[in-house]
Design goal:
This protein has 16 helices and no strands. The protein has about 425 residues and is an all-alpha fold. The protein has a single domain, classed as Amino acid/polyamine transporter I.
Length: about 425
């Protein structure tokens, strides 16, 4: 893979605050506002254990991505790392599965936005609202990185403040009896919940995908990854504990908008509107960063001939990979029109666990003089990702493996037509 650290065209406009906000923006969204309800139905009140387990697994993978980004601060993230440290085939599969996953993530986030949006705009059909927000954020990404990052910073600050309001306000109505029984499905439910809640953490490495747009990426990217992961984990734990304490796991499990229904138990209708608005802001922020990430991997893969060259073009005025943004946006819209929320969460989690499995393998192969952490760190990260995949549903396995198979067929086709080796 050619070295493109000084690649012309892309704009270095992201500092530490912006990079950290990008990570928080990618993590705190549908996971906390939507998937909380799904996990409550699997793990019960013990879902905070699921959050801790998923966060620990994410932390090992975050350490691997951090040292990889310091070694090779290049657009494309794990696609570039695996390409250089494992093989072109491994790099391609990492990039392919990221694209596959985030098409579903974008669909899930758009639908999550709409689930809360219909609380405020009940007359608008669910999928119409999801489609509208998707198109709006595709347009913002198309216009420029500075505009996208500025909007994301504002959205992140607002949604963190709303989550703090949720925590403090709901503590006044907290009921400890809602935690009995603590784990109705035992360890299987807790681990199954951890497998799904990992969906909420998958955005921690988003900034590594756009390393050529980050200032001093060797230092900024690792710091921002750990800051975003730490802040998000604390908020996830506090929100989940308070939500169960005020509403109970069964109520959350049967809700499409669990935090709004939880705060509705306080008897203050205005608080429902505040949380619903916060959920829309949070999911919008995740959608923005999802489009940023997926378009940058498509752009990077196109430069390396793994995808059609047209996706590697940069807009002469906006200096964004406009064809990559448009192409991935079209796929995302198709997925949200066809998909079911619970299914897209499971499929995207399968794909992201596979993606971080490759990242950990790449980190394991780092030269000793570029290693920041002991070699057992990526080994634990890889084994934990592989172990968590086991607890996902059969449908997630079927669709996920189908996506992998399509990627393998495409790679073999490109290998034959372009003449490169695996």
């Amino acid at each position: 893979m050619p070295d493109r650290r000084d690649s012309p065209g892309l704009q270095r406009a992201v500092g530490l605050f912006g990079a950290t906000a990008l990570g928080i923006g990618a993590i705190i969204g549908s996971g906390i506002f939507i998937v909380t309800g799904i996990v409550a139905g699997i793990a019960g009140p013990a879902m905070f254990f699921s959050i801790i387990i998923a966060g620990a697994i994410a932390a090992f993978s975050a350490m691997s991505v951090a040292e990889l980004s310091a070694f090779l601060p290049e657009e494309g993230g794990t696609y570039a790392y695996a390409y250089q440290l494992i093989s072109p085939f491994a790099g391609f599969m990492a990039g392919w599965i990221w694209i596959f996953s985030n098409i579903f993530v974008g669909a899930a986030v758009s639908l999550g936005f709409a689930q809360y949006g219909i609380v405020i705009f009940p007359e608008v059909p669910l999928k119409v609202l999801a489609l509208l927000v998707c198109v709006v954020f595709l347009a913002i990404n198309y216009i420029g990185i500075r505009e996208s990052m500025l909007l994301n910073n504002v959205l992140v600050i607002i949604k963190v403040l709303i989550l703090i309001f949720f925590i403090v306000f709901c503590l006044l109505f907290f009921r400890t009896e809602n935690f009995l029984p603590l784990a109705p499905e035992g360890s299987t439910g807790i681990l199954g919940g951890a497998a799904l809640i990992f969906f909420a953490y998958t955005g921690f490495a988003r900034v590594s995908l756009m390393a050529e747009e980050v200032k001093e990426p060797e230092h900024t990217i690792p710091r921002s990854i750990f800051l975003a992961l730490g802040i998000s984990t604390v908020l996830y734990l506090l929100v989940s504990i308070v939500a169960v304490g005020i509403a109970g796991a069964p109520t959350l499990a049967h809700s499409a908008s669990p935090l709004a229904d939880a705060i509705g138990n306080t008897g203050y209708p205005a608080s429902i509107l505040v949380v619903s608005a916060g959920a829309m802001i949070a999911t919008a922020s995740v959608l923005l960063t999802t489009i940023l990430g997926i378009s940058r991997i498509v752009f990077s893969m196109a430069r390396s001939r793994d995808l059609p060259a047209v996706f590697g073009r940069i807009h002469p005025r906006f200096r964004t990979p406009h064809f990559a943004i448009a192409g991935t946006g079209a796929a995302m819209i198709g997925a949200l029109l066809l998909a079911d929320l619970a299914l897209v969460v499971a499929v995207s989690t399968f794909a992201m666990l596979f993606f971080y499995l490759i990242a950990n393998i790449a980190a394991f192969r780092l030269p000793e003089d570029h290693r920041l952490y002991p070699r057992w760190v990526p080994m634990v990260g890889a084994l934990s990702c592989a172990g968590l995949i086991v607890f996902l549903s059969r449908d997630a396995w079927i669709i996920g493996c189908t996506g992998l198979l399509i990627g393998i067929v495409w790679f073999l086709f490109r290998k034959k037509t372009c003449g490169y080796t695996a």
